[in-house]
Amino acid sequence: MTVVTAKPAAEPRVERRALRDAARGLRGIGLSVVSVLVGIGIWQLLAMQYGASLVASPSATLDAAGELAGDGTLTNSIIASSRRILIGWGLGLLVGVPVGLLIGQIKIVRQLLDPYIEFFRFIPPVAFVTLAVVWLGIGESSKVVLIFYTAVFIVTLNTSAGVMAVSESKLRAAASLGASRRQILQGIVLPSTVPYIVTGARLAMGNSFLTIVSAEIVAAQVGLGSLIWTSRNYGRIDWVFVGIITLGILGFVFDRVLRIVASRVLRRYGVKL
Predict the structure, then answer these.
(1) Which CATH superfamily is domain 58-269 in?
(2) What global pTM score does this model have?
C-alpha cells in the first residue's frame, strides 16, 4: 500500500518570512531613531557646555530654520543649490560614462586620455573657482562647470575600472561564438560595469556637495554656501547650523533617491545597493 504524504502548505512559510522581514525593517528604523536622538542629546550637551556663541542648540537652530523659511531665504537657497548640483552632476554622468567605456575598451583612447585624467583629477575644484568666475562670470555657468569638473573624473574612473574588471574569459567566449563588439558591450560589458557606474555616481554626488559650498561662497548671492558665509559675516551661528544641517539632509535625500532609482531601474543587471 502506498502512503501519500500531504505537502505542507507554502503560505505559512511565506507569512513567516514576511513577518521576519517586517520585524527586521522595524528594528532598523528603531535603531536609526535612537541614533538620531542620541546625536541630538550630545548636540544639546555641547551647546550647554560652550554656549550659544559657539554652538547653537537644537531648539535655537530649529527657531532659526523657521525664521529663514518664513522669509523664503532657506527655500530659495535649497532650490538654487539643488539645481546647480543636479545639472552639473548630470552632465558629469552624461560625459563620464561613455568616456569611461571608451577608456576601458580601447587601449589607444586610454593611452591618449590617461595623462590628462591623472593630472586634472588631483587638482581640486576649489583651485578653479577664481578662474571659473573670471571666465564664466558669477552666474550659474561657473557653478555648474565646477560641479561638472568634480563629477566627470570620478564617474569616468569608476566606469573604466568596471570595464577593465570584466573577465577576459567571458569576452573571449562571446567573441568565439560570433558576437559583435556591440553585442559584447550590451550583453557582457554593461551588465558587469553597472555597479561601478552607480558607485561612481554616488561618489560624484557627494563630492558635488563639497564643491557647491566653496563655489557659492565665492560667487553667489543665493544658495546654501552663500547662506553659511553670510551668516558667518552677521555672527549668526544658528543660521550657520541651519545651512550645514540642510546640506546634510539634502545630500541624504539625494543619495537615497539615487539608490532607490538605481535599484529599481537596474535590478535586471544584478545591482544591489
Answers:
(1) MetI-like (1.10.3720.10)
(2) 0.83
